[in-house]
Amino acid sequence: MTRYFNGKEVELLAPAGTFEIFQEVVRSGCDAVYLGGPVLNMRMMRKGYNLSREELAEAIQIARSLDKKLYVTVNNLLSEQELEEARDYLGFLDEIRPDALIVQDMAVPALVREMGLGLQLHASVMMNTHNLEMVHALRDLGVSRVVTSREMDLQTAKHLGRESGMELEYFVHGDMCSVHGANCYFSSQVFGMSSNRGKCMKPCRWDYRIKKDGYIYPAEYPLAVKDMYMYEHLPELIESGITSFKIEGRMRDKDFITMIVNSYGDALDRYIDDPVGFEREVDAKLLYKNRKRDFSTAYAFGKPGLRNINRRYEGTGKFYSTGKVFSTPTAERELSEDRVLKLKERLAAELRPERTPDAAGIAVRVNNMAQARAALEERVEHLYLSGDVYEPDRPFTKRDILELARIKGETKLILALPRMMTELHFDQYDQLLIHGERLPIDGLLVTNLGAVRRYSGTGYELIGDTSLNIYNTLAAKTYARMGLKRLTVSSEMTLDHFAGFASKSDLPVEMVVHGTPALMYMEHDLFENTEVMEPVGEEDNRYVSNEVLVLMTDKGENPVYRDQHGRSHLLFAKELCYLPMVRELALAGISSFRIEGQTYTPERLREVIRAYRDALSGNGAAGETSEQELVNSLTPVYAGYTLGSLQFN
Pfam families per the record (predicted)? Predict the structure, then answer.
């Protein structure tokens, strides 16, 4: 079954969570089905979902007999320990030949090439593809289709498809996320449940209060986005050049999914048959009546703002087996001396005898010139000028860069790029880095695959940021071939996964060890709540100044900063702190220790840098293991200290 409009293929892609659901869905009005096998995909939380190897093989035969396509999700980040399992699984998939694999980790294309497999690859939405350079880079890696970023509007999609010739897939219906794909680390850092490995705890659907300037605002569920709904806009989707219309729902029941698929399939057939006389709203009431949440067109026609967020108990109130569409805030595990000792012992088992802790360097990311000068005066090895600058500070100017270059001494001055880069951003940075007078900097902190491709030939040293989500040595080697000279380890790594990776990496490895790194990075502007709503009470922030917006539950407060691009960064409520174990980390393979200093005063930044310098050299109390000694050596300025994802196995 294949649909065409003006000679171009239009595919309706349906989800299936079990073999029973697949058997029903594949006979509905779809052209293709996507599903997961027994391992290595993003829907491993619900028992009984996903297909066995035998069911996968049978499903492919059924799909082919109906002239339909079948795609298998292999869209987890892969740990070093899972690479052999992935080799075996990919070999099996090559034998049964699905029409494509949907992948997130850069190791999968590498394995497909290494093993000489004939598998087609589609880039998952978790690759967060959002610019033309990313599309070109994925094409170079053998990817034949890209699932676009959830935040992509149709005009941008049209441009990317037209300029690249790549097939694009776009979510048209179902559950969405308020955070940029693969840029939500809340669940992994706080609970050890990685959202990039299919185990998200759904902190975006908690009940929060918003506080700012001493006032409380009635936000309720400020991150809980409505479901995507593009049923009435199929003509615009087709006109934009989208090849595949993707319905979310691998965790939904068969009656619900088949109802949605048949409605969309019927609408596509009616439009193809008679586009001028097409009626957009034939099944609109049916879909609305059976919604799980209220509907939105999300970013398809531009930035939606607060109308993308639910303000009440959502939809029909039916959600999995809980009867609720929201989740409950969960407290973070308290830091204990016992856990610190166990971490040190486990790291000690990974020591590399050729390494010495005092050879490791300190890197600092800063938000303004005062912080930058303080870091330079402390003679840090690497200074990162942030590409996403938190308000009220403004982006570093060319004049700022020239001034810092004059006083940097032996410090390497690195210009960080924005995490999300539009075509406009590339135009701006091209002028600065390629066409203009060469900057007196020592390198670039690259944040997305497109930036790696674009600037690998400029002569600037490329350092990979955490947002590249490098989780194994195969992914690291792929980026090294593209030009990276140093990588930052994924902030989602648990202790065992880290231990299996750091000591084996061919590239120098950096790690974020202190500060309040972003747990959520989103296009959604949380500050809009405070600009359009009237406050309902007064209350001061507990750990940050009242000028900072915080999201608050009964379990804690998370500060939120807005950058110069209007994007929101939700940070740790506590300070990440690996001070008691930096020597072990250095001996296990870390060569650069990064302090995320964007929210610190210059005085606090100096204090933190000196503590880590002492810890690496073995001087002072900073090397002690007890929590009390740690607190005494460097008192937290936020809600306390946390060990992040490293504390989990």
Answer: Peptidase_U32
Closest CA to 232 of 165, 172, 277, 185: 172
Range 169-183 burial, b when 16+ CB lie within 10 A, else e: bbbbbbbbbbbbbbb
Classify 142 in phi/psi space as left (phi over 0), alpha (psi -120 to 50) or beta. Answer: left
Q: What is the pLDDT of residue 330?
A: 59
CA 452 to chain centre: 17
Read off the pLDDT band of 547 (50, 70, 90): very high
DSSP state of 431: I
Rg (C-alpha) for the chain, rounded Å, is: 25
Q: Counting runs of H as helices and runs of E as strands, what totals does the chain give?
A: 21, 28
C-alpha span between 164 and 552 (Å, rounded): 43
Angle at 160 between CA 158 and CA 166, to 5 degrees: 105
Residue with tokens 């185990």: 199
HEC string for 432-474:
HHHHCCCCCCCEEEECCHHHHHHHCCCCCEEEECHHHCCCCHH
Asked if 241 and 158 touch (Cβ cutoff 8 Å), the reply is yes
**Residue 642 near residue 335, CB atoms below 8 Å:** yes
Q: Is the pLDDT of residue 317 over 50?
A: no
130-155 tens-digit pLDDT = 999 999 999 999 999 999 999 999 99
312 burial (CB, 10 Å; 0-12 / 13-18 / 19+) is exposed
User: Average pLDDT in the 169-193 region?
Assistant: 92
Per residue in 30-66, pLDDT (tens digit) is 999 999 999 999 887 677 789 999 999 999 999 999 9
Whether the predicted pLDDT of 600 surpasses 80:
yes
pLDDT of residue 354: 65
Return the exposure string of 248-284: e unless at least 16 CB atoms fall within 10 Å of the residue's CB, then b.
Answer: bbbbbebeebbebbbbbbebbebbbeeeeeeeeeebb
Contacts of residue 289, Cβ cutoff 8 Å, sequence gap at least 6: none
Retrieve residue 82's tokens: 């899972």
- Angle subtended by helix axes 369-377 and 602-617, to nearest 10: 30
pLDDT at residue 321 greater than cutoff 50: no
Distances (CA, A) of 168 to 68, 129, 243, 360, 465: 18, 10, 5, 43, 26
**Cα 592 to Cα 363, 380, 465, 563, distances in angstroms:** 6, 10, 12, 26
* Structural domains present in the chain: 3-176+226-308 (3.20.20.70), 337-351+358-517+572-647 (3.20.20.70)
189 residue type, one letter: Q
